[in-house]
Amino acid sequence: MIAFLRGQLAEKQPNRIIVDVNGVGYDVSVPLSTFYRLGEPGAEVALRIHTHVREDALALYGFATAFEQQIFERLIATSGIGPKLALAVLSGIEPADLARAVQASDVVRLTAIPGVGKKTAERICLELKDRLPTGFGLEPGAGRDADGSGDDLRRDLLSALLNLGYHRPLTEKAVDAALTRVESPTFELGLKQALRELARLS
What is the rounded CA–CA span in Å between residue 23 and residue 21? Predict the structure, then answer.
């Protein structure tokens, strides 16, 4: 089992990166909470890894913190939630906010995440309430600013959110609102604010 990877970031896109470890490229799925913390291609990265083995595939899921990994592993232990949906959950809400939503049984907040229906949200609250890791505080993200600006930044934000499953009309409203609210927006800051706007608009 692969439990940890340290190497050079070869490619980077929301929810998927390639890590070059001594010439071997590892394809790793990551939540947006981890994506925010990554540098640009060429930077060194160190990720905690959950290795998911099926009969027909071996998939790697990477996390910047133990907290994220623990929540992911508790999610996939929940009935009806697989790795892809667990990743979508962590991409649609900050890990600390997820923990607070579960503690408060905030089904409305959880159903704002693409792919999470009411029954799934209720199941997450029920099964995770007493099983979440202690300590909800996370260090601020350490990702570097994106270079895009103006129309390029708006296009990148739209692309990232559409790839996560959000509908275009709602996504466009959220991105436009985010870009007006964030002073000197970068991709990272714009994406975080757009996710907040989507939660508010949903």
Answer: 5
Say if pTM beats, i.e. exceeds, 0.70: no
Write down all domains in the chain, each with its CATH number in brackets: 4-63 (2.40.50.140), 67-128 (1.10.150.20), 150-201 (1.10.8)
First CA to last CA distance, the chain: 39
Q: How many Å apart are CA 153 and CA 122, to the nearest integer?
A: 36
Amino acid 131 reads R
Q: For the chain, what is the radius of gyration of the CA atoms?
A: 17
Segment 68-119, tens digit of pLDDT:
888 899 899 888 899 999 999 988 887 778 888 888 899 998 998 888 999 9
One-letter amino acid for residue 79 of the chain: S
- Half-sphere exposure in the Cβ direction for 6 (13 Å, CA): 0
Q: Minimal CA–CA distance to 15: which of 114, 81, 136?
A: 114
Token pair listed for 112? 């704002």
Kindly state the helix (H) or strand (E) to which residue 164 belongs, with its residue range: none
* Token pair for 46: 């160190």
